Amino acid sequence: MAKRRPSKPYRGKKSGYRSKGGGGGGSALKLRKLDGDRGWALVPPPSAEEMSDDIAEVHEMLEHGELEIATDELRFLLSTCPELLEAHVLLGQIALETDETKPADIELARGHFGYAFQLGEKALTAASCPGPLLGAEPSNAAWHEAARGLAWCLEKQGRRAMADQVAATVRKFDPSDPAQVAAMLDDLRAGGLPIVELG
Question: What is the CB-side half-sphere exposure of residue 16 using CA atoms within 13 A?
Answer without folding.
Answer: 21
